[in-house]
Amino acid sequence: MLVKFNRTYPSFMDEFFGRDFYPAHYERNGFKSLPAVNITESDNGYTIEVAAPGLNKKDFKIDLDKNSLTIASVMEDKQEENNERYTRREFRYTNFSRSFTLPETVDSEKITATHKDGILYVNIPKMEEAKEKPARQIAIK
């Protein structure tokens, strides 16, 4: 009989350390991935939406270097549990960084950002010359 276990560590490790040793082994949310990003284009510009629930606007840092826009976040979470026999301290850092190459047609001086309901909105307007002009008829002289 062949028995296949889908386990990364032997069971004695599980029994000794429990779920605190390797949380990704037990839970899907043990390790976080990059936040979801939506990018939309309109006639007037682009909008980047970063879904990051639990983060506040002070947790974000947005940098622009030439035509590269970087959205980053570093968040520190400290937890301490005191018992009469032990003290348990945990430090958890959540960070991410996403970079986007902007087209040359954007007006980088007018980029704005807002945060609402766990979503960061970065508005990137197009230069007037790059905006699509409506169709028009040209008069013959």
Report how far the terminal alpha carbons are from each other.
92 Å
> What shape does the CA trace take?
rod-shaped
Mean pLDDT: 78
CATH class: Mainly Beta
Radius of gyration: 24 Å
Q: List the domain count as a whole number.
A: 1
What's the tally of helices?
2
Strand arrangement within the widest β-sheet reads 1-2-7-6
Q: What would the keywords be for this entry?
A:
single chain, 141 residues, mainly beta, Immunoglobulin-like, four-stranded antiparallel β-sheet, three-stranded antiparallel β-sheet, 2 helices, rod-shaped, disordered N terminus
Structure description:
There is one protein chain. By secondary structure, the protein is mostly beta strands. 8% of the residues lie in helices and 43% in strands. The chain has two helices and seven strands. The protein has helices spanning 11-17, 23-26, and strands at 36-41, 45-51, 60-65, 68-82, 87-101, 112-116, 119-125. A four-stranded antiparallel β-sheet has the order 1-2-7-6, with no helix packed on it. A hairpin with a 2-residue loop joins strand 6 (112-116) and strand 7 (119-125). The chain is rod-shaped and about 95 Å long.
Topology:
Layout: H1 11-17, H2 23-26, E1 36-41, E2 45-51, E3 60-65, E4 68-82, E5 87-101, E6 112-116, E7 119-125
Antiparallel strand pairs: 1-2, 2-7, 3-4, 4-5, 6-7
Short characterization:
By secondary structure, the protein is mainly beta. It has 2 helices and 7 strands.
